[in-house]
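DM between two lab members

TW: hey, do you still have the Alpha/beta hydrolase entry open?
JB: yeah, one sec
JB: this one, 271 aa:
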Amino acid sequence: MIDIMRRNHVQVSGNGPQTIMFGAGFGCDQKMWRYVAPHFEENYQVVLFDSVGMGNSDVTLYDAKKYSKLDSYAKDVLEIMEALNLNNTIFVGHSVSSMIGILASIKEPERFSHLVLVGPSPCYINELPDYVGGFDKEALEGLFDLMDKNYIGWANYLAPVVMKNVDRPELTKELEDSFCSTDPVIARNFAKTTFFSDNRKDLPRVTVPSLILQCKDDSVAPIEVGEYVHRHLPNSSLMYMEATGHSPHMSHPEETIELIEQYLQRNGLTK
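TW: and the structure you got?
JB:
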């Protein structure tokens, strides 16, 4: 029997009656939430985890075929919830974990109270003029070509594109190091799963209320994407952030905390 807690390096803290669970974006692990998650420990049980292949997860359990679909990552989230006997959970997902949380909530909505989606994107590829995803298919294929030929060079290129905030190079360096610490084969597979998935048709199937946090000047999930998600996601709220880039929980943790708190307070989920 697989040890779910060990597989995903699940960490539990806090003392509150309700659970808030944080999922990291592509190429990242739970450490990326260290500026935000501790704030919620006073009023919530906080659950952090690493996707298989990322961070301190059990990499021996990574299966390329299994994890070629976001549905498998969503299944892992539900297995963590089952192992911890979690229901009525607030799920906070960054980037691809937003979609993973959405897919999990469609499968077992009773386990979720609300979704908080930080920089979500159901599809990264442009289908102009009807849909702006942020990337031309040819540009993405070029990124994968660079990934194959020069993985370090790929990380050096992508990290500043994702992070922005050029005045804080330490954040870019941390993201670059996170990319480089991941097995290149796993990273490539996860990148392909992330950037070539199309979950637009799944959005109307969501029944759990949600908050979309949209950064400005986000090259990965531009404003058009956040607004598309809001239009097609039932019972959703959209908040525009002053934060720039694609990782506000790292670059602008105070604003991230404040907006999540505002949303939870409006929905009677915090003191």
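TW: got it. Residues 217 and 249 are 15 Å apart (CA to CA). The two ends are 40 Å apart (CA to CA).
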